[in-house]
Design brief:
Elements: E1 2-13, E2 16-36, E3 41-55, E4 57-63, E5 69-94, E6 98-115, E7 123-141, E8 144-155, E9 180-193, E10 201-222, E11 227-247, E12 251-266, E13 268-270, E14 279-281, E15 293-302, E16 308-317, E17 320-321, E18 329-330, E19 333-342, E20 346-348, E21 351-360, E22 368-371, E23 386-388, E24 393-402
Antiparallel strand pairs: 1-2, 2-3, 2-4, 3-5, 4-5, 5-6, 6-7, 7-8, 8-9, 9-10, 10-11, 11-12, 12-15, 13-14, 15-16, 16-19, 17-18, 19-21, 20-21, 21-24, 22-23
Length: about 400
C-alpha cells in the first residue's frame, strides 16, 4: 500500500501566528504465510515493512492584537522526518488451545531541520531501536481465554519537542534529549457467558488486564512545552476491567474502569534550566498529567416499535497533578453524553442510509479538557495549566450506501 497526505495548519501560540505546511507520503508491505505442521499444529509467519517521509515549512509571524498575523516573518524552518521500519512475527498454534508468539521490529527515524533565516541553527538527528516481543495464550473454550505478553517499545520526541532549553548553549535539535524506551508486561483474561436457562439475560462478558510498564528516559515537558527533558526512570502499574450485559429486551449495559499508579522512580532535574542553581529530586512523585482513575458506564436500548437505539453514557476522569513537584492539582470531572442512531440502514430511493445524533457534555459542565504539564505561572503565582474542555456539542452524521 502507498499514500500521500497534504496537511495545512494555522494556530496562535505564545504571541505568534504559526503556519505549518506538510506533505506526508509513504507505503508499507505485508506478507503472511501459514504451514500445517501436523493435524493440530499450525505455524503462521508475518513479515512486513513501512516507510514514511514528512516534509514542509513552518512559518512564524507576530500575532496582532486582533488575532491575525502581521507581515514580518519571524521564523522560517523546514522540518523533515523520515521513518523506516521492518518487522517479523511468528505465531504457533497447537491442540486448538495453546498459542505462542514472538516478534521483532527494527526502526530508524531521521530528523532534518533547515533554518532559512538562521542557517547556523540547521541540524539533523538519527534515532534507532530494536524492539522484541513475546507472548503465550491458552483458550479453555471459545468463550474463555487467558494470555501473558511482554514487549519493548520506544517513543521518539516529536518535532515540537526537540527545541533545546533556553538557558543552555545548544541550538537546533536538543542533543541531550533521548528517546523513551520501555518494557511492558501484561496479563489478561477474556470471558463470555451465555446462560443455558431461558431468561432475560442473554449474554455476559468480562475482560480484565493487569500491566506493568518500566520506562527509561521519560520525556517530560517544561515551560508549557517550550522544551523537554528526560526523567531517568518511571514505573506504571495498573488494571483495566470491562464488563457488559445484554438482555432480550434490547437493553445493554457496559462498564469499564481503569486504576493505575504511575510514578517517577528516579528523577533528578537540574534547576539551572529554570534560573535556580540547585537540583530537585522528583523521585517517587506521581507522573504529571495522568489521572489515577478513569471509568465509564453506558446504557443502550433499542426501541421495539422503531429501528432506533438510544444510548446514555457517564464518563469519569479522576484528579491528576499538573507538575512534577505534585503541587498543582487538576480537579476531577464527570460528563453525561447521549446518542440516537438507526439500528439498521433505512432504504430510501434505492440507497441504504444510516444516521446518528450525538450530544456530548449534556450538562454543559466546565472542566479541564487538557493539561499543560509543568506550566508557567502568572504575576500572582497562579499555575496556567488548564485548557478548557468542550462545552455542550451536537454532532449529526449519516452514511449512504448504494443497494444496486
Amino acid at each position: 500500500s502507498a499514500f500521500v497526505q497534504p496537511k495545512f495548519l494555522t494556530r496562535s501560540e505564545r504571541n505568534t501566528y504559526r503556519e505549518f505546511s506538510r506533505v506526508q507520503t509513504g507505503g508499507s508491505f505485508l506478507y503472511n504465510s501459514a504451514w500445517d505442521l501436523s493435524g493440530k499444529t499450525t505455524l503462521l509467519l508475518t513479515l512486513g515493512g513501512d516507510a514514511a517521509l514528512q516534509d514542509g515549512p513552518a512559518l512564524f509571524y507576530q500575532l496582532t492584537p486582533e488575532g491575525t498575523r502581521d507581515s514580518v516573518l519571524r521564523q522560517n524552518k523546514r522540518e523533515a522526518a523520515f521513518n523506516v521500519g521492518a518487522f517479523a512475527r511468528t505465531l504457533l498454534r497447537w491442540a486448538s488451545t495453546w498459542q505462542l508468539w514472538a516478534g521483532l521490529r527494527s526502526d530508524w527515524l531521521a530528523y532534518r531541520l533547515i533554518d532559512a533565516l538562521r542557517p547556523s541553527l540547521s541540524d539533523s538527528r538519527l534515532f534507532q531501536a530494536l524492539l522484541p516481543s513475546a507472548g503465550i495464550g491458552y483458550r479453555f473454550s471459545d468463550n474463555h481465554s487467558i494470555y501473558a505478553h511482554i514487549s519493548s517499545g520506544w517513543e521518539v520526541p516529536a518535532y515540537n519537542e526537540v527545541d533545546p532549553p533556553p538557558t543552555g548553549s545548544a541550538r537546533g535539535i536538543n542533543p541531550e534529549l533521548k528517546p523513551m524506551q520501555s518494557w511492558t508486561v501484561e496479563l489478561g483474561s477474556r470471558h463470555r457467558v451465555r446462560p443455558a436457562y431461558r431468561g432475560p439475560l442473554q449474554e455476559l462478558y468480562l475482560e480484565a488486564a493487569l500491566y506493568w510498564i518500566d520506562s527509561r528516559n521519560e520525556i517530560v515537558p517544561y515551560g508549557n512545552g517550550r522544551f523537554y527533558l528526560n526523567a531517568a526512570r518511571s514505573e506504571r502499574l495498573g488494571t483495566e476491567l470491562q464488563a457488559g450485559l445484554a438482555f432480550d429486551s434490547k437493553l445493554t449495559l457496559r462498564g469499564m474502569v481503569g486504576l493505575s499508579s504511575m510514578r517517577y522512580r528516579s528523577y533528578v532535574v537540574d534547576s539551572s534550566y529554570f534560573g535556580v542553581q540547585r537540583q530537585v529530586d522528583f523521585s517517587n512523585n506521581r507522573i504529571a498529567g495522568v489521572p489515577t482513575v478513569q471509568s465509564g458506564l453506558q446504557v443502550g436500548y433499542t426501541l421495539p416499535w422503531l429501528p432506533l437505539s438510544i444510548g446514555v453514557e457517564l464518563s469519569y476522569v479522576g484528579s491528576a497533578y499538573a507538575d512534577d513537584a505534585n503541587t498543582v492539582r487538576v480537579p476531577d470531572y464527570a460528563l453525561w453524553n447521549a446518542s440516537i442512531r438507526t439500528e439498521r440502514p433505512l432504504l430510501i430511493a434505492g440507497a441504504a442510509v444510516s444516521a446518528w445524533v450525538e450530544l456530548r457534555n449534556l450538562a454543559n459542565r466546565r472542566y479541564v479538557g487538557s493539561i499543560y504539564v509543568n506550566p508557567d505561572r502568572d504575576g500572582q503565582g497562579n499555575a496556567l495549566f488548564a485548557e478548557s474542555g468542550m462545552p455542550r456539542t451536537v454532532t449529526v452524521g449519516f452514511q449512504v450506501h448504494s443497494t444496486r
